[in-house]
Design goal:
The chain is an alpha/beta fold. Among the domains are: about 55 residues, Single Sheet (N-terminal domain of TfIIb); about 220 residues, Dimethylsulfoxide Reductase, domain 2 (3-Layer(aba) Sandwich), CATH 3.40.228; about 130 residues, Barwin-like endoglucanases (Beta Barrel). It is about 30% helix and about 15% strand. A hairpin with a 4-residue loop joins strand 23 and strand 24. It is globular and about 65 Å long. The termini are far apart. The structure holds ligand MGD (2 copies), iron/sulfur cluster and molybdenum atom. The site of one ligand MGD has 38 residues, from helix 5, helix 11 and strand 21.
């Protein structure tokens, strides 16, 4: 039943939870059915923009394959169960493992939608904390871990990641990002391409550095093809040139920076001439790149997944910020800066593990000996930790909104290992390649059934939007919201059983977070008592749970009402009354002093841990990679692995194809449309080839997120459009050494006709 019983079409205003663009949508509902979705032109953030995925929210909600009730495994199939039965089964299975093997035999995998889902994003920390699992895995190590490492060491804050001020820049260099498909990442912005067009219209430059001439290049002034994995070398040479031509200008940051000389020394051997042939970019063009970035008043360098998911991810991530700082393009209008979200993200509260700062390699993984980085090891380790006998072998796994059988390197080994688990619980809404192995699946709300309030994503916003969205539909009667599911799993770990009173746990968790929120210098409730704040909700209709949590994040945030301290400030109710959202202003500048958490208050321009990796980069310069290198790509109609069950999005020509340059196709006797066998050191697959000069010679591209139609899945549409799993080719131990992040770009492959 819908929230209103009106049979006339009703328009609900709601932000899209699918990607970082956070578009405001007009969702028309007629007789409990979504009949139309359009961009909301009055939305103060996205002004009517949307992409084809946004129009598919109704399909996701109505998808008959989407789970509405918990499922319990029975032999090779699942049966629908009550929530009480499902939690009792979780208790039985998890306790079995913990009592026999200890908590060290349990782990969790946290997937990408966690960051987009209000309940999961806030309460996943409750589960991992209460369970005391010694380690967890996440999609983060096939994503932004290098950026977290560089921010941890440069600023003392893992999630303080600088974002380009896209609306106000006149010159942007984009490396390893394709917003035409992705809609922007660690740069939240609706209509990125519109902003790029505007830069060009005002006479500015948009330079795309990518081995592929992507759709973003259609909105750029220049495409610079680059050999995969060599971005760090290019950027080291840009820094070298900045020093050599005396262009370094720290602008207002001089007093907030240390180790400038450390950078100068570190990049000394990386001259433009030394790196040019490795990167495939002429030395003269590299010099000009440096000159343009330094000499243009409002210029910025931005890098994303192509600069992270590669061999030198941390070096590249670090150097991107270093270049912006050296050019005076940091924390100023039109440069790279730190957004300040209205809803304070929990991630922003994370701190170094010692007073001296972050330490790495505090422990290593059992089987491979991979060093821990920011509490995680590469997700590709998970398979071997499950299938290798011995003390500490993983016997129980909880997946939260993740599909690692598709999205992680070592995919086929993980697929084979999961059935041996004694307990596998999936908090997920579909029976897909991963969750088909679960003993119990616990579904959450649909994309239209829960309150939507972004916090983490808003910390990458190119402005300061304030918006929360009410649910469009009520969840089914008796269903359990995801925040409760996570707390209940936590209670099971604590030995409290399947029907514990989770209110106590919720209050304790919330109070602990509030304590940190009010300690923030910019908190509107700075210095107030956490217990009193939590207690003030007692008896209200927000006495517990995620709504209370969001209200607290808003009211203790920099724009909040501070429980009376700032009476005109924001509250959840105020924002719920503004379905078009409020725009608090452009991306702030001058935030460096409050963002940097190092004891001396200074940005470390040359962290030792990072600089020590430069010899490895120098070795790369000495190496010539013969043969072809594989990179990944995205498509606007797809979202990692989980939206191929929407017919309107997968219709049309096959998109899971290998893009090959005509010269490489000819040299390997491959023809357009034919099947080719692609082989890496780790695996091989057959896939249809698209011959196209949009690839630079020597590089081939295959999307990730495909490889459906596995037995036991319940994804009727996706299974008709199976595609192949890119990660079968990924090399499990090919990682960015400093972060442990997977190098799924730059994989040496051979191709031949099938
Ligand atoms: N080769 C290669 N591999 C890659 C990448 C690449 O570029 N190349 N990219 C990497 C990146 S950046 C990422 S982020 C990862 C993604 O890796 P994952 O996060 O593991 O994969 P997704 O496909 O996002 O899976 C999302 C899962 O969440 C479920 N889900 C969706 N919405 C909800 C919800 O609201 N609640 C719950 N409980 N479940 C939900 C879906 O059913 C699905 O099972 O893939 C990585 N893998
Ligand atoms: N439609 C859609 N949107 C999405 C997603 C999706 O799957 N589909 N996924 C979401 C997620 S989880 C993320 S993390 C973001 C990612 O957002 P983006 O970072 O914009 O990701 P991509 O679109 O994959 O673009 C990456 C580009 O890097 C290039 N590349 C590969 N290797 C290298 C290299 O070594 N150097 C350089 N310079 N370039 C390289 C690739 O050719 C590709 O064009 O997108 C998010 N948005
Ligand atoms: S760009 Fe598309 S998927 Fe992303 S938030 Fe907007 S409508 Fe949703
Ligand atoms: Mo991602």
């Amino acid at each position: 039943m819908s929230i209103t019983d009106n049979h006339k079409p009703q328009i609900h205003k709601r932000q899209c939870p699918l990607c970082e663009a956070m578009c405001g949508l007009d969702i028309t509902v007629t007789n409990d059915e979504v009949t139309l979705i359009r961009g909301n032109r009055d939305d103060t953030w996205s002004k009517g923009y949307l992409c084809p995925k946004g129009t598919a929210l109704g399909h996701l909600h109505h998808d008959p394959d989407r789970l509405r009730a918990p499922m319990i495994r029975e032999g090779d199939t699942f049966r629908e169960a009550t929530w009480a039965e499902a939690f009792a089964e979780c208790d039985r299975l998890l306790r079995g493992v913990i009592d026999t093997h200890g908590v060290g035999a349990t782990t969790a995998y946290i997937g990408n939608p966690t960051a987009h889902n209000a309940s999961l994003g806030r309460y996943v920390g409750a589960l991992t904390g209460m369970s005391a699992m010694p380690m967890i895995y996440s999609a983060g190590t096939v994503d932004q871990w290098p950026k977290n490492v560089s921010s941890a060491l440069m600023y003392g804050a893992t999630w303080s990641i600088p974002v380009p001020d896209l609306p106000n820049t006149d010159h942007i260099v984009m490396m390893g990002a394709n917003p035409q498909a992705s809609q922007g990442s660690i740069m939240a912005c609706a209509d990125v391409l519109g902003h790029l067009d505007a830069i060009v219209e005002r006479g500015g430059e948009v330079i795309v550095i990518d081995p592929r001439r992507t759709g973003t290049v259609d909105h750029a002034t220049e495409w610079l093809p680059i050999v995969p994995g060599t971005d760090a070398a290019l950027l080291a040479a840009v820094c070298n040139e900045l020093f050599a031509t005396d262009r370094v200008d720290l602008a207002g940051l001089t007093d907030h920076i240390k180790n400038l000389d450390g950078v100068r020394a570190a990049v000394e051997s990386f001259t433009p001439d030394a790196v040019a042939s490795t990167c495939g970019i002429p030395a003269e063009r590299i010099r000009m790149l440096a000159h343009q970035l330094a000499d243009t008043e409002r210029a910025v360098l931005y890098g994303r997944i192509g600069t992270c998911n590669q061999e030198f991810g941390t070096l590249a991530s670090w150097l991107i910020d270093v270049v912006n700082i050296l050019c005076g393009n940091f924390d100023v209008e039109g440069g790279a800066g730190f957004a300040e979200p209205v809803v304070t993200p929990l991630a922003s509260l994370s701190r170094a593990d010692t007073p001296e700062g972050y330490t790495f390699g505090r422990w290593t993984s059992r089987v491979r000996g991979a060093p821990e980085v920011l509490g995680q090891v590469p997700v590709s380790c998970l398979a071997e930790e499950i299938d290798t006998p011995g003390d500490g072998q993983i016997k129980a796994l909880i997946t939260v909104a993740g599909n690692p059988v598709i999205s992680a390197p070592n995919a086929e080994r993980l697929d084979a290992a999961l059935p041996s688990l004694e307990a596998m619980i999936s908090v997920d809404n579909w029976i897909n390649e991963t969750t088909r192995h679960a003993h119990v699946i616990l579904p959450g709300a649909s994309v239209l059934e829960a309150l939507q309030a972004d916090d983490l994503l808003a910390s990458f916003a190119v402005a300061t939007p304030a918006r929360v969205s009410a649910p469009v539909f009520d969840p089914p009667e008796g269903s359990v919201p995801e925040w409760q599911t996570l707390l209940r799993l936590g209670a099971i770990f604590l030995g409290m059983g399947a029907d514990a009173d989770i209110t106590v746990l919720d209050n304790a968790f919330t109070e602990a977070v509030v304590g940190q929120l009010v300690a923030e210098p910019r908190s509107a409730a700075h210095g107030q008592d956490a217990a009193e704040i939590v207690a003030s909700y007692a008896g209200s209709d927000r006495a517990q749970g995620v709504e209370r949590f969001i209200d607290i994040q808003i009211r203790t945030g920099p724009y909040g009402d501070g429980y009376g301290a700032n009476p005109d400030g924001l509250t959840l109710d105020k924002l719920l009354a503004e379905p078009n959202g409020l725009m608090m202003g452009p991306m702030p500048t001058g935030r460096t002093p409050e963002v940097v958490r190092h004891a001396d208050g200074k940005i470390d321009l040359a962290p030792e841990y990072i600089v020590a990796d430069l010899p490895r980069l120098a070795e790369r310069l000495a190496r010539t990679d013969e043969g072809l290198l594989l990179v990944s790509r995205r498509h606007v109609r797809s979202n990692n692995s989980w939206m191929h069950n929407v017919r309107t999005l997968v219709k049309g020509k096959d998109r899971c194809t290998l893009l090959v340059h005509p010269d490489d196709a000819a040299a390997n006797h491959i023809t357009d449309g034919a099947l080719a066998t692609v082989r890496s050191e780790h695996g091989s697959l057959d896939v249809a080839v698209e011959v196209s000069d949009e690839m630079m010679p020597g590089v081939v591209s295959l999307p990730h997120g495909w490889g459906h139609n596995k037995p036991g899945t319940q994804m009727s549409v996706a299974n008709e459009h199976a595609g192949v799993n890119n990660n079968i080719l990924a090399l499990p131990e090919f990682v960015d050494v400093l972060s442990g992040n997977a190098a799924v770009n730059g994989i040496p492959v051979e191709i031949s006709p099938s």
